[in-house]
Structures are given as structure tokens and as C-alpha cells.
Amino acid sequence: MPRPGLIATAMALAIGSLSPALAQVPDAPVSRPIVIGQSYTLPSAIMDEPREINVWLPPGYADSGQRYPVLYILDGGIDQDFHHISGLAQLGTIAGTTRDIIVIGITSRDRRNELALRSEDPELIAAYPTQGQSARFRRHLTEEALPFVEATFRTDGEAVLMGESLAGLFVVETFLKQPALFDDYVAISPSLWWDDGELATQAATLLAAHPAGPRKLILTIADEGGEMQTAMDALVAGLTTAAPADLVWTYEPRPHQTHATIYHGAAMEALRTLFPVPATEPATAP
């Protein structure tokens, strides 16, 4: 009886004697990564730990030599809002509905620590003992994240801050307290209910101290109701009575949306508003 090794050898010789077309084994599918950005680990003395920053650059960035406006996304981690917002930026480029921009995702870890202002409410303190360090996180943006971005990438000096929910609260607080930090602000269903709406009630006073300079503020809210809506109404009242003359602000509620569904569509409209494609000059007859 032939041994197994001899049988295997005979089969190999037989296959090798076939024509190439018959002997060829189809190649396995080839996979490659889909790269939509770059993640950086930024040392942070302010936060006492390395922090993740995610970056999406517009197509053609490497070869264009031009400079670009920057959209900073809070909750901008890979498992947070970075992918869907950078996707909107890419869609705007492909469809020609927005200018090319750089998208910077600022990752958050402890959201109530980093995005919420300090509360003295005993219930909030008990529920969230690490809460209320938004001022420190803003220092991280101002002194570490923004300088890194401006030194590393070809920015044109235009910067926009956008966030939703607690990140929207941080956007509003930054706008009210350090308005010159960014050019424009987008707050989507901001959690202004925090600390019984204290930030919203301070709006008129804080707006009165704003430095001169043109800025834009885009506000929207879903069908939230309750203390979310009450605090938003207080903020809008403050803007109505005390907004600086050079501030362009809009407030468009979205009652057909929920807190879970509002972000994507509102962000797309904000990008189209803040980064419109320049109108093409009509051709003149020779």
C-alpha cells in the first residue's frame, strides 16, 4: 500500500503538469486599511495626562500648499463624534457644498469634569464628584491643543468650536466667557439645565463685557422641553437684550428632532452656513 507521503508527492507532480490556466489557484482578497484621519497623543501638563486629538485633512491637503479654516469638535474621539463630523466635511468637499476645512476632534474622557462648569448644587456634587473643571479643560485647549494645531497644520486663522449636549454647554460657556478664543460657535441642544440654568441667567451680564469683534453663534435645540428649554429661553432672552452689534446669532429650534437625532443634520447645516463655497464670478464677454 503506497505511503501517504508518496501519494502527496504524486498529486503535486500531477497538478504541476497541468496547464497554467487549470493549475492556477485564485488569489485571496486583498485588504487594506481605510484611513480617514490621524490620531495624535498630545502631552498635557494641564490635564496631568496625555490627551488624544484626532485630525481630518481635506483631500489634496498634502499638495495644495494652501491654508484652511479649522473646525474643532468637542467629544471628538474616534468612538465619539469625530467620524460623522469629518464625514460631513468630506461630503461637503465632494458635493461642493462647503469649503475645504480641517477637522480637529478633541477627545473627552470625563465629560462632566471637562465640559461642565463648577456647580455648588449638593445633588450634582454627590452624583458627579469630579464635575466642574471646564475652566481647566479650556486652558488645555487654549495653551496646548490650539497651539499644537496651529504649529502643525496649515491653518488660515479661522476657527470654529462645535459641540452637542454637555459639549454644547461648554461651547456656550466659552462663547460667553472667552469669546475671542474662537471666531464662531455652534451649540446643538446644549445642556444649559446644568446647575439650574445658572450660566444662561448670566448671559446678559457676560455679553455686556464682550470685546469688539465680529463673531457668529448658532444655537439650536431639539424637542427637549422642561429645564433644557427653560434655560435655552433664558439664554435667548439675554442675547436679545444684550448681544453686541457685531455678533451674528441665530436660534432655530428643531421640534421634530430628539436629543439623540439632532446632531448630524444640525451640524451639516452649520457647516454649510459657516463654510460656504464662494460664489463664482460670472464670465465676462471678451
Automatic annotation (TrEMBL):
Q: Where is the signal peptide?
A: 1-23
**Matches recorded under Pfam families:** Esterase (PF00756)
Name-wise, this protein is: Esterase
Alphabetically ordered keywords of this record: Signal
* UniProt cross-references to InterPro entries, sorted A to Z: AB_hydrolase_fold, Esterase-like, Mycobacterial_A85_antigen
Q: List, alphabetically, the Gene3D superfamilies matched.
A: alpha/beta hydrolase (3.40.50.1820)
Recorded superkingdom = Bacteria
